[in-house]
Amino acid sequence: MPKTSARRLILVTALVAATALAGPAPSGPEVAVTLAPALSDRLERSGDAAERAVLRQLATEAMHESVARAIGRGAHRVRVDVVIEDAAPSHPTRAQLARTPSLDALRTHSSGGARLTAEVRDETGRRLARIAHEHYAPDLDRASPAGDPWADARVAIDGAAARLAQALRTAPAQP
Q1: By 3-state DSSP, what share of the chain in percent is helix, strand and coil, each rounded to 5?
Q2: Among 99, 88, 98, residue whose Cα is nearest residue 150
């Protein structure tokens, strides 16, 4: 067996063992992220269908962490439903770069952002909090300096997650 394969086997074995010893993942909020049909269709038509998964993942991670902190990890089960109503990239996506080779992944920059709605319900279906949030860079000077295609959308998602966590801490439960 070549040295590289042996090292990989050892690394994989160590990771599997560490995962098994760590035990089950901590409980926390269940997060469901969907894209509004108009946004999903726009991404599909532009050849950026793969970016739907990227946006869902960004929102899932941010909401899970913020809501878990707000309610206390494992305190009780809640469901977070997020709809990304609109999103615009700050830098060209992979599909845009493939279609237009003259674009530069970092130097080509636009005012990106996103608009989201989110709602948290407990296990009985009672609404605990609901928010609507949007952030779009007002101009290139105030856009996110990150080179990520979804840098300004990430700012919007993080802002929505923070607002949702704050709403959970301060709002009474609603039917």
Answers
A1: 45, 20, 35
A2: 88
Using DSSP's 3-state secondary structure scheme, residue 91 falls into: coil
Other Cβ atoms within 10 Å of 113 Cβ, number: 26
Report whether pLDDT(138) > 70: yes
Name the pLDDT band for 68 (thresholds 50, 70, 90). confident
pLDDT attached to residue 172? 64
Residue type at 20 in one-letter notation: A
Determine the straight-line distance between the first and last CA of the chain, rounded to whole angstroms: 63
- Which of 127, 116, 34, 133 shows the shortest CA–CA distance to 79? 127
User: What contacts 135, CB < 8 A, 6 or more positions away?
Assistant: 113, 114, 152, 155, 156, 159
Burial class (CB in 10 A: 0-12, 13-18, 19+), 162: middle
Tokens of 174: 């609603």
Predicted TM-score of the model (pTM): 0.78
Q: Is 142 left (phi over 0), alpha (psi -120 to 50) or beta?
A: alpha
